[in-house]
Structure formats: structure tokens, C-alpha cells
Structure to design on (1327 residues):
């Protein structure tokens, strides 16, 4: 602080030159107890002192003496610490003649403090020792003027080379504040060299370089050195280096710099967690102290990037473009996700970040492993971006794309595990919000995340058990599989931990529901009880679907030891639930199915399992089984007998007492009681499989046991018609549940490897088809048959209100007053497991029948027949079609569509599991295609040998279904997803019996190989309707693999099929033939090498065969599928092709002008399309059919519109360089447009509303085309080539319509109906 004293006071006068001169200039030096004082303004003092030096005889000697005396004055430690001395030195440095010498003396003094002090120094002396260099450097900062800047810069740089570590830091940091701008380049060059040679002073050097003004060339060199330092910089220096690089970013170099920085910045190697942090759950050790977090290097690095992105738009753009440009799946780093989280905090970029994130996840570039590497970083560093993590998770979960949803679920899991308790609570709240959103898919995924968290981190989730329990408020709005998931979550929270606070409450809720008067609540209670029993007897096996994020599975807890009290609770709950369900056959049936689901997903304790099995066995035996030796009742109104038995009857046989049980029950309970047969057997066989290592030996007698039913004669049409209505109803009901029983038997034993059991399974499949035929016959007579089914556990049914519950009980009578076909009840048959399709792998079996002397009397070959194969393929096709398709994501609360295909085929497998099953079945499906194809070749419709004629329709249907199943699989849009791409490779390899070694690498080669394999089936397909699913399969393969070579093969195959002469058949309708032809023509033209050439060839060669003076041929010899009847279909597809080809021309833009060769090719393509168009419009005169004229009007309008948008810009550009070609094109188009005008006039005369609806739009397009041509000609100074006249209305044959003759007009007024007239110069004429 400078003190100015106005009054004069007596001062202490020193005897040396220094004292005298400063006192004369106005500065009073204080004594031991007084402070230095200045009596004049600082500028006056400096001016007077300078004048005093000029008066000296020798300025240099005087300056030297002055500086020496000043240094002696500074030796006193008390004066050194004086602020007055600090002010005096800065005043003296402002004197030009004194500054150089004083700086030299200060540097000499500075060198004395370069080394560390010796031992024995007091703390006060040590502090003074350390402060002196800083004080000296402070005097040199921000001087108003430097006399010799170059010398000062040289001295400072030399000092950097020899100074100690601490002093070097001080000097480097002070360079921008000491040096003049003219010396910045010299200092920057030296610092750049120092940065290259050592890493000890990186932060100080970078900070100093940031404040130095350098040239662009030198700045680029420094930036290059700093960029090279990123990969080797110490963790503490990295934020400074990153900040410097970010500051150099400009819009022109943003992407280049950011890309290079990203390549060198590897967070995975910088932040390696300690071993202890990897072996214990993160969630239990991360209570973050905000002060300590902000001091971490991770936090500083992320904060540096955050600041740069927030305040520099070019930096944010650079990061976005750099991350977007990475296309390699393994090319992304953890820093990419971190930066996107930072960018997401900027509100203006939130939408773009979410879109980019989604595309990266969907493309397989952001993987779960990459996500795991991000969350291995310090949780405190990521804590700031937790809101972005949560928001992104919510958005991705709602995307509807499997890979994106999977990523979102893992993101939720990592967010829960990696952050503190507050964040964990926010994650749970977000998941609960998804559950309450009303979006079915969101609810499923949110419950899956909760299920995964309670499975892998039960202790962390247990503290939120009370919060999760509140989801029970949404219970009435959930589908049954969602209710099951919710109760699973709550049961794990309640019973995996002994200290859980919701056990008693969960018991209370379930018991109340079980005893409720409404069936919908009893259903909820049954599901809850099954899940509670599952967890009370939990044996440690993970759930089948608990694999969403394998990287987190290592934190899964060991299964708890099951105490006697827990086992007793489980057994008591089983008993109570069975007791509660005893009053309702519906809930009893549901309990059996729910226990099957629970047992399959978790290995239960054997003692509990055995107790459940014994209870089920007892009930099943007492209710449904009967000894064959017992007499059958005769008072039921219909005769009874043992039917459909596969074993020889003796006294030890048992039978299924189906019809007597049905007759004994009353009302709706009869239906539910019969349903219980299949449900209890399913639970029984699941328990037996688990208790006996997969063996069903204890229940295998049921596979061949007979069923107590009426004789088959009664079920014949003539006998059935005479029965009472109630008896008809009972018999239909028994047939229905008999089919369900057989379906469960096939599901149970289809996987058995014993030949005898396999033979019985094939026989049971034959029984199913036979029973279905009998039921179909009975329903044709008893049209009022209805089936009121229970709310099946694995079907998507809503239980919102009582009214919905009534509608959810599926009364066919309510849906339709007439039910005369078995297709009406297909929805209600019990589903087939995917294991059933193991039958498709069965090898042919032989059955030997022995005579009384044990000689072979007869040998019977047991193979799956076309009817049984058709039954299996229909079910498999239904499953594949409903699951491997684009599901409607986000359907809100809605009443279940009971007649949908998804209802009919709902099953436990996810889409991924189903796709894997289909791949496993691929060899069997391929073999059945070959067998069925060969059978169809050897069987003609007219044959009636060995029953082949009756099997021929079924064989054709099997071949169609086989093609459809594979077509749907390869058309599954998720096969292009990285999560499922391996299935595509594997399936193609299985279809090609001898895969090429590079098939797994080149997907295009694999597609070509598959097409080559299927190509041989095109020669002898039995029906033309078979060719459509066949081509659909080939198209699906080509589309999935994106193979151009395979597409050419498909076009060739379509051509062969169109050239094939197909025989007429009663097994296909005219509509089926037409639809097939349209599909074949679509790819014959669309995927050919030159589509326009293909259309031109068709018009020039094939179609003229149908035209002639004598009427022409009825069928074309080139294309036998082309006839006068099928011509409208051909004509429509040819018109569609030329329109699509014009639309395929790229739009011309101002920024990117193609080369002249490219433009000429486009012009020639337009010219060819115009020629083909004229050929097509002239064909309308020869085929005066309404469908042909309608197609000409409709697609002619589309052609003109496409020509205006895509073709006219090319014609305009090419007019001058290729004038003759353009004029020829316009003349050709004029001929076509005149024909279109005639079509419009003919349509008006015919007064056909279907045709006239196209006229206004077509005429408007023609008028716009005329104006566009006129504008182009005027622009190119060729307006004389265009003239306008009135158009005379004519019909199809060109005859003038007399009722609309108009007088010639010389008016130039433009009307909708006009015609160009030839001009004298014979130039282009246009309408």
C-alpha cells in the first residue's frame, strides 16, 4: 500500500547514494520502528529520480552504486518482509535507466534461494526463504514498460533450465505476466521444447502456454505436442492438457482435433479400480463425500469436458460428429458414453443425443461391456450426470427395439448398483413410473429390471421393499404374466431375507385374494401363492429369464439355508391354497398351471416338491382315473367304451374317466373340471421330471392308456344328428378336452428317446388329428356349442373390472351366434411346448406285430404322416408369425383381443428363445421340405393309388407352411440386430448342407449359397400358389443378408416360375393365383438387372402373342402364365415398374452436380421409360378391360408426377448438350399424353365412377407437365418449338366423340384439355 503524505515531516537521511537519491525524489525510508513513506505521486517520484540520474557524471556508475546500496538495504530480514520495500522495488523498476541493472541484481539475488535450505533452519526462516523468490518474481509482473524485453526473456528461460523444482514452477507460471507480447513466441518455443522432453511440469507449462500470444504456425506445433502428451500425461495433469486442447478447437478443425483427442484419451487404463472395489458390491460402499469427490482427477477431467461443451458450440459439435463417425462395433470407448451423458445435460442437444444413443445401441456399437467399463470409473465423477443416466434409461426403454431395450435395462441396473442410496431410490421410482405408465411393453421391461435386481442384489433392494410393494396398487391393470412377475419380485424381497418387513403383509394380501368372492381376485391370489411357495422353497437355481445383464451376475448372493420353519410355511401355504381352490375348479386349474411356471423357473426343495406331487397324484387318481377291469356305467344316456388305447388291455390297465366325469358335473364347473385333467397332468409330469432327473417312467402308462368315451359310431354325422342338444353339448365338450389331453401327452413325451415311446407319440398325433376331424363334424351339426374357458395363466388377459372378467372368460356364443367350425375353438386349445417339435427330428420307426407262435406276422412303418406334419407346422407357423414380427409397442390399457393370433399362440418362450428353437429345427425343416417336395413330385392329382390322392392336398399345404415358416424367420427384422445376427449365420449354414469355410465371415456368400440350395425346388412345385411362399423365403433371405448377387438369382427364379406352365387345380382359387402372379412379377421386374428392359421385352414379345387379327393366342408361349385373363395383373405390375424406375432417379441438388456421363445415363433411362410407357398405353386399345384402363389412369398419373419431380430437372440440364435426344423424348411423351387424354374422354362417356375418379388428378398432372415443358423451352430460347391448340375429345380407338365436338378457337387461354399443333419448323410439340 502506498501512503501519500501531504505535510512535510522530518526524515532519516542515509549517508549512501541510494538513500540520498530516493529521499531527494520524494521517498522517505523508515527506521526500525517506522514505515517507508512516499511524499509525492509515484509517477512524479519516478520522473524526479530519473532526472537525478541524468545529472550524475556517470550514469552507469551511479546506477551500479545505487543498486548495490539497495541490495544491502534488502539484506535486513525485517525490511525484506516490509510491504513498503515491495512498493519501492516496483517504483524503481519503473525507472528506465535503473531497470536493467536492478533486474540483474534481482536475478542474482534469486539464484541464492535456488537450493533448499540446510538443516537447523527455524520455521520462520524457512518461510522467509521460500517466500523471497515469489516476492522477487512478483516485482517483475505486469510492469508498465520493459526496457530490454529480449534480455529479460533470455534470463528467465535460462533460469528455468537451472532452477530448482519449485522455483521452476514459479518461473514458468509467471512468464505470461512478466514478458511483453513480443517475447511470447520465444518463451512459447522454449516451453514447447520443455514439454516434449519432460513431464514434470506439464500443468505449469500448459497453463503458461494458454496465456501466451503466439503465431498460428507455432500454435499448431504446440497443439501437436500437447496432443502427444495426452496419452502419457500424469492423471493430475490431464485436465489441464484437455482444457488447452479444447480451447484450440474452432469450427474448421473441431472434428479433427476431437477425434485425435478421443483416440489418445483412454479412460479404461487411466482409472483402474482397486482390487477391493471389484470384489464387493459397489452399492454398499459408495456414500460419496462431495468435497472429496470434487478433488478427484476423474471429476476434474469430466468437469473440464463439461465446461468446454457448455461454453463452446464447436466443441460440442465436434464431439457429436466424432462419435457419430465411429462405425466399428469395437471402435467405441468409455469416454464416448461419458461425453454423450455430458452433452445430454445441454437441453438444446438432448433430443440429438438420445437419437444418436439409440442408433449406436441398435447398431451394436454401444455394448453392455462398454457400459460396464463406464461404470467402473469413479461413481462420484459420474454422479453429476445421474439425471442424464436416468432420462436416457427411460427413453431407451420406450424405444421398442430389443437391443435398445436390453441396453436400457442394463443401464438401469448399473445406475442402481453404482450410485448412492438416494440415486437408488430414484431408479426404483423411475421403474415404478414405467409400471404405472399403462404401456404394456414398458411394464414388462420395468418388472424385468426389478426382477433382475432382486435376484442379483437382494440386500440392496431389500431396503426399498416397502416402496416396491406399492406397485400392488396397479395390480388390477396388469396382464397375468405381469402379475406373475410382480409377485415374483415381492416374494424374493419378502423371503430371501429373514429381516424383510413385507412378509406378513404379503401373506395377508394373498390370503385375502384367495378368499375373495370375485374370481379375478382369486386368480391374483393363486399367482401370488405360487410365487410365494416358489421362494419359500427356493433351492438356488436362477430364473430362466435372468440373463439380461451378465456382467452384473457375479454379485449374486448364495441361496439361503432352508430352515424347517420355512419348509413348513411352504407346505402350509400349498395346503391352504388347494383348500381355497377346492370351491372353484377354475382357480384349481390355474393353480396347477402357475405351479408349473414356478417350478420350471426355480429349483424348489425336493421335500416340498414331493409333497406337492403326492397331493396332485392323489387328486388326479381319485378324480380322473379308472381301472379298466371295472364295469363302465350304463345310465348316462350314451353307451361307453374304452377308446384310443395304445396298449393291450388287461386287468392292470388304467383309463381316463373323461365322459362319466363330464356327465356327473353341472353347469360351468363341468368345463373347468375337464380343464383340470390337462393342468394336473402337466403339473404332475413337471414334478416327476424334476424329482427323477427328467424321467417320466412313473407316469408313462398314461401315454398309452385308453379314454372312457362313447363309441365312434355315435360321433358320425348320421348318428350325432339324432342326439338331444344337451348330449351333443357334452360330447363336443368331451371331444374338446380329449384333444387337450392328447396335446399335453405329446408335450410330455415328445422328447423321449426310446423308440417305443416315440412310436406312441406319433400315434397320439394321429389321434389328435382324428379327434379334431370328429369335433369338426360334430360342430357342423351342433352350431350352438360354446366353451367357457378359464383365464389361462400364460395368455395375455386383462383383469381390470368385473365386466372385463366376464368378457375375458371367452364365451364363443357371445362372439358368434354360429360356431360350426373347429377353427372357432382353435384359440382355446392348450398350447404346445416348443419341445413338441422334436417330433420333426424323428427317424422312421418300424413296428413288428407277432403271431401266436411269436413269428413276425406284420411289420408296420411308423412315420409322421402329412396330416400330423400339417398339424405341427400349423402350430409352429402360428407361433413364429405372432412372435417374430413387429409387435405393437406401447399399447395402453386395453381389453384383450381374444381372437388374435397372439392370444392363440402365447407361450413361455421369448422371441429370442423361439428364434433359437427355429434354428435348432432348421435341419429337420430342411429335410421335411425335401421329403414333401419329392412326395408331391411322385403324386399327381389324378392318382388314386395307396391313398396318395387324399394326402396330396395335405402335402401341398405342408410344403407351403414349411416355406412360410422359414420366410417369417428370415423376415424377422431383428436378425439384423447384433444381438441376433449369429442366428442368421447359423441358420444359413444349416440350410446349406456343406457350408463354405468363409460362410460365417461373408454373409452375402451365405445368402447366395442358400438361394442356390432352394433354386432346385423351383422346377417342379406342385401348385402356383406354392411359389409365392417359396419366393417370399428367397426374398427374406436376400433382404436379411442384403445380397445383390442373391437378388439377381431370385429374379431369375421368378422368371422361370412365370415361364412354367401350371396346371389348373381345384385346391387353389383364382384370387390365390392372381396374388401369386403379382408377387412373382414384382420381383421379376424389380430385381432384374435392367427392369425397364424386362418390361420392354414383355411388351414387345410376349404380349403381342395375345393380339392378332384372328384374336391371337389364348396363352403366351414365352410366358405361359400370361393370358388374356391374367393380362390385367401383368399390365398393372409393368406400370408399377416404370413408375418406380423414374422415382429411383436421384434428385438433382445445387450443391452436388453429377458428371455429364451420369446425367446422360439418367436421360437415356428416362427416354427408355417413355418408350415403354407408350407401348403400354397403346396396349389398352387391344385389351378394353376395366382393370387395364383403371391401371393405366392410376399409374399414368403417378408416372407423370414422378417425371415432373425426378425427370424434368435432368431433362432441363441436358437440353443444351443433347438437344436432339431431348426433343425426341418429348415427342414420345406427347404421344402417350394424347392417349391419356383419350382415356379420360372414354371414362366420361362410360360414366364409370371408378374410372372417372382418376381423371381430375391425371388432367392436372398433364397440365402441369405442359407448363413445365413450356417453361423449359422458353428458358433455352426455343419457345418457337411449342404451340398450343384445342384438343378434340376421342375414345380409346381414336374416334372423335361427336357429342363433345368444339369449334376451333384462336384464344390463347389455357384450359385443361389442350393439344399442341405441329409448327412449321417441326420442333417438339407438347400438350
Amino acid at each position: 500500500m502506498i501512503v501519500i503524505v501531504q505535510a512535510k515531516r522530518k526524515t532519516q537521511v542515509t549517508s549512501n547514494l541510494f538513500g540520498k537519491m530516493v529521499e531527494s525524489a520524494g521517498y522517505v525510508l523508515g527506521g526500525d520502528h517506522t514505515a517507508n513513506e512516499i511524499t509525492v505521486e509515484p509517477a512524479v517520484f519516478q520522473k524526479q529520480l530519473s532526472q537525478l540520474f541524468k545529472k550524475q557524471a556517470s550514469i552507469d556508475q551511479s546506477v551500479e552504486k545505487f543498486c548495490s546500496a539497495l541490495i544491502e538495504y534488502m539484506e535486513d530480514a525485517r525490511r525484506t518482509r516490509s510491504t513498503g520495500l515491495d512498493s519501492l522495488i516496483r517504483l524503481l523498476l519503473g525507472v528506465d535507466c535503473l531497470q536493467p541493472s536492478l533486474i540483474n541484481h534481482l536475478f542474482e539475488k534469486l539464484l541464492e534461494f535456488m537450493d533448499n535450505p540446510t538443516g537447523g533452519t527455524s520455521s520462520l526462516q524457512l518461510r522467509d526463504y521460500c517466500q523471497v523468490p515469489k516476492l522477487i518474481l512478483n516485482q517483475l509482473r505486469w510492469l508498465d514498460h520493459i526496457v530490454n524485453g529480449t534480455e529479460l526473456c533470455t534470463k528467465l528461460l535460462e533460469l528455468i533450465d537451472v532452477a530448482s523444482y519449485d522455483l521452476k514452477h514459479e518461473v514458468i507460471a509467471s512468464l505470461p505476466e512478466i514478458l511483453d507480447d513480443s517475447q511470447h513466441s520465444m518463451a512459447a518455443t522454449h516451453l514447447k521444447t520443455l514439454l516434449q522432453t519432460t513431464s514434470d511440469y506439464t500443468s505449469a507449462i500448459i497453463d503458461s502456454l494458454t496465456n501466451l500470444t503466439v503465431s498460428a504456425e507455432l500454435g499448431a506445433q504446440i497443439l501437436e505436442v500437447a496432443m502427444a502428451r495426452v496419452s502419457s500425461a500424469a492423471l493430475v495433469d490431464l485436465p489441464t492438457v484437455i482444457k488447452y486442447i479444447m480451447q484450440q478447437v474452432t469450427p474448421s478443425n473441431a472434428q479433427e482435433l476431437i477425434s485425435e483427442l478421443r483416440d489418445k484419451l483412454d479412460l479404461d487404463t487411466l482409472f483402474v479400480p482397486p482390487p477391493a472395489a471389484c470384489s464387493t458390491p459397489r452399492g454398499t460402499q459408495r456414500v460419496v463425500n462431495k468435497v472429496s469427490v470434487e478433488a478427484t482427477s476423474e471429476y476434474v477431467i469430466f468437469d473440464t469436458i463439461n465446461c468446454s461443451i457448455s461454453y463452446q458450440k464447436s466443441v460440442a459439435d465436434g464431439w457429436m460428429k466424432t462419435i457419430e463417425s465411429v462405425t466399428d462395433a469395437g471402435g467405441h470407448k468409455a469416454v464416448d458414453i461419458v461425453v454423450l451423458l455430458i452433452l445430454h445435460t445441454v437441453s438444446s442437444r438432448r433430443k440429438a443425443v438420445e437419437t444418436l444413443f439409440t442408433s449406436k445401441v441398435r447398431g451394436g456399437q454401444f455394448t453392455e461391456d462398454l457400459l460396464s467399463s463406464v461404470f467402473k470409473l469413479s461413481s462420484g465423477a459420474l454422479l453429476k450426470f445421474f439425471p442424464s443416466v436416468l432420462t436416457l434409461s427411460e427413453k431407451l426403454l420406450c424405444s421398442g427395439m430389443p437391443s435398445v431395450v436390453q441396453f436400457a435395462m442394463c443401464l438401469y441396473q448399473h445406475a442402481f448398483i453404482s450410485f448412492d442410496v438416494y440415486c437408488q431410490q430414484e431408479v426404483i421410482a423411475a421403474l415404478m413410473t414405467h409400471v404405472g405408465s399403462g404401456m404394456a411393453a414398458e411394464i414388462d421391461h420395468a418388472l424385468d429390471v426389478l426382477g433382475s435386481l432382486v435376484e442379483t442384489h437382494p440386500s440392496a433392494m431389500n431396503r426399498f421393499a416397502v416402496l416396491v410393494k406399492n406397485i400392488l396398487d396397479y395390480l388390477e391393470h396388469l396382464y397375468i404374466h405381469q402379475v406373475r412377475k410382480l409377485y415374483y419380485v415381492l416374494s424374493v424381497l419378502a423371503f430371501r431375507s429373514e429381516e424383510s418387513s413385507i412378509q406378513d403383509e404379503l401373506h395377508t394380501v394373498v390370503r385375502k385374494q384367495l378368499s375373495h368372492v370375485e374370481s379375478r381376485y382369486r386368480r391374483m391370489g393363486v399367482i401370488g401363492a405360487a410365487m410365494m411357495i416358489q421362494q419359500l422353497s427356493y433351492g438356488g437355481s436362477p430364473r430362466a429369464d435372468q440373463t439380461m445383464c451378465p456382467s452384473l451376475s457375479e454379485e449374486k448372493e448364495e441361496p439361503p439355508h432352508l430352515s424347517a420353519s420355512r419348509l413348513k410355511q411352504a407346505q402350509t401355504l400349498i395346503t391352504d391354497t388347494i383348500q381355497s381352490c377346492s370351491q372353484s375348479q377354475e382357480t384349481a386349474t390355474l393353480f396347477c398351471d402357475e405351479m408349473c411356471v414356478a417350478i420350471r423357473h426355480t429349483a424348489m426343495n425336493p421335500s416340498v416338491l414331493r409333497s406337492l406331487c403326492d397331493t396332485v397324484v392323489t387328486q388326479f387318481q381319485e378324480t380322473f382315473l379308472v381301472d379298466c377291469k371295472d364295469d363302465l356305467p350304463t345310465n348316462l344316456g350314451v353307451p361307453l367304451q374304452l377308446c384310443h388305447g395304445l396298449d393291450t388291455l388287461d386287468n392292470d390297465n388304467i383309463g381316463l374317466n373323461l365322459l362319466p366325469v363330464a356327465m356327473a358335473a353341472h353347469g360351468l364347473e363341468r368345463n373347468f373340471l375337464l380343464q383340470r385333467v390337462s393342468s394336473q397332468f402337466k403339473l404332475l409330469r413337471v414334478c416327476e421330471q424334476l424329482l427323477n432327473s427328467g424321467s417320466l417312467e412313473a407316469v408313462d402308462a398314461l401315454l398309452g392308456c385308453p379314454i372312457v368315451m362313447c363309441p365312434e359310431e355315435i360321433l358320425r354325422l348320421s348318428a350325432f344328428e339324432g342326439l338331444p342338444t344337451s348330449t351333443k353339448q357334452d360330447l363336443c365338450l368331451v371331444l374338446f378336452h380329449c384333444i387337450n389331453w392328447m396335446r399335453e401327452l405329446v408335450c410330455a413325451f415328445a422328447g423321449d428317446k426310446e423308440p417305443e415311446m416315440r412310436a406312441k407319440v406319433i400315434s397320439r398325433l394321429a389321434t389328435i388329428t382324428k379327434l379334431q376331424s370328429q369335433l369338426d363334424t360334430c360342430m357342423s351339426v351342433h352350431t350352438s356349442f360354446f366353451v367357457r374357458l378359464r383365464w389361462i395363466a400364460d395368455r395375455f388377459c386383462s383383469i381390470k373390472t368385473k365386466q372385463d372378467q366376464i368378457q375375458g372368460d371367452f364365451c364363443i356364443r357371445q362372439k358368434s351366434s354360429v360356431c360350426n367350425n373347429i377353427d372357432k375353438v382353435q384359440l382355446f386349445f392348450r398350447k404346445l411346448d416348443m419341445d413338441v417339435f422334436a417330433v420333426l427330428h424323428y427317424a422312421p420307426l418300424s413296428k413288428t406285430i407277432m403271431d401266436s407262435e411269436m413269428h413276425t406276422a406284420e411289420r408296420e412303418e411308423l412315420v409322421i404322416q402329412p396330416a400330423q406334419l400339417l398339424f405341427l407346422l400349423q402350430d409352429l407357423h402360428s407361433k413364429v408369425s405372432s412372435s417374430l414380427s413387429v409387435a405393437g409397442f406401447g399399447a395402453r390399457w386395453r381389453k384383450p383381443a381374444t381372437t388374435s393370433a397372439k392370444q392363440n399362440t402365447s407361450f413361455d418362450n421369448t422371441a429370442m428363445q423361439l428364434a433359437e428353437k427355429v434354428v435348432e429345427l432348421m435341419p429337420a425343416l430342411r429335410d421335411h421340405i425335401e421329403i414333401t417336395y419329392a412326395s408331391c413330385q411322385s403324386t399327381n392329382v389324378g392318382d388314386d393309388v395307396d391313398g396318395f390322392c387324399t394326402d396330396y392336398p395335405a402335402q401341398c399345404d405342408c410344403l407351403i407352411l414349411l416355406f412360410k415358416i422359414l420366410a417369417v424367420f428370415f423376415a424377422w427384422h431383428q436378425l439384423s440386430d447384433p444381438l441376433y445376427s449369429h442366428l442368421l449365420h447359423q441358420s444359413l449354414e444349416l440350410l446349406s448342407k456343406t457350408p463354405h469355410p468363409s460362410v460365417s465371415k461373408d454373409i452375402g456368400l451365405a445368402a447366395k449359397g442358400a438361394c442356390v440350395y432352394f433354386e432346385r425346388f423351383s422346377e417342379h412345385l406342385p401348385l402356383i400358389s406354392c411359389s409365392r411362399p417359396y419366393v417370399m423365403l428367397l426374398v427374406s433371405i436376400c433382404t436379411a443378408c442384403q445380397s445383390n448377387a442373391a437378388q439377381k438369382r431370385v429374379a431369375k427364379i421368378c422368371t422361370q416360375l412365370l415361364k412354367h406352365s401350371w396346371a389348373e387345380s381345384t385346391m387353389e382359387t383364382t384370387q390365390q393365383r392372381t396374388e401369386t402372379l403379382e408377387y412373382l412379377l414384382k420381383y421379376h421386374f424389380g430385381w432384374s438387372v435392367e427392369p425397364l428392359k424386362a418390361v420392354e421385352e414383355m411388351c414387345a414379345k410376349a404380349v403381342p402373342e395375345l393380339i392378332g387379327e384372328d384374336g391371337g393366342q389364348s396363352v403366351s408361349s414365352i410366358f405361359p402364365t400370361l393370358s388374356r385373363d391374367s393380362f390385367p395383373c401383368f399390365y398393372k405390375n409393368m406400370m408399377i415398374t416404370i413408375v418406380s424406375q423414374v422415382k429411383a432417379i436421384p434428385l438433382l441438388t445445387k450443391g452436388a452436380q453429377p458428371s455429364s456421363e451420369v446425367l446422360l445415363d439418367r436421360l437415356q433411362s428416362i427416354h427408355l421409360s417413355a418408350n415403354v410407357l407408350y407401348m403400354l398405353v397403346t396396349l389398352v386399345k387391344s385389351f378394353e378391360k376395366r382393370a387395364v384402363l383403371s391401371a393405366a389412369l392410376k399409374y399414368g398419373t403417378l408416372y407423370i408426377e414422378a417425371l415432373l419431380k425426378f425427370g424434368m430437372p435432368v431433362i432441363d440440364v441436358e437440353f443444351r448438350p443433347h438437344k436432339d435426344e431431348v426433343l425426341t423424348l418429348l415427342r414420345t411423351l406427347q404421344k402417350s399424353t394424347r392417349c391419356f387424354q383419350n382415356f379420360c374422354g372414354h371414362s366420361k362417356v362410360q360414366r364409370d365412377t371408378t374410372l372417372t375418379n382418376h381423371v381430375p388428378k391425371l388432367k392436372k398432372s398433364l397440365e402441369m407437365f405442359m407448363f413445365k415443358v413450356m417453361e423449359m423451352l422458353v428458358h433455352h430460347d426455343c419457345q418457337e418449338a411449342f404451340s398450343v391448340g384445342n384438343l378434340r375429345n376421342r375414345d380409346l380407338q381414336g374416334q372423335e366423340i361427336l357429342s363433345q365436338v368444339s369449334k376451333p378457337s384462336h384464344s390463347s387461354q389455357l384450359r385443361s384439355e389442350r393439344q399442341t399443333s405441329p409448327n412449321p419448323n417441326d420442333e417438339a410439340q407438347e400438350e
Notes: Residues 911-938 form the longest helix (28 residues). The longest strand covers residues 856-862. Strands lie at 27-28, 37-38, 625-627, 641-643, 654-656, 707-709, 845-850, 856-862, 1285-1286, 1314-1315.
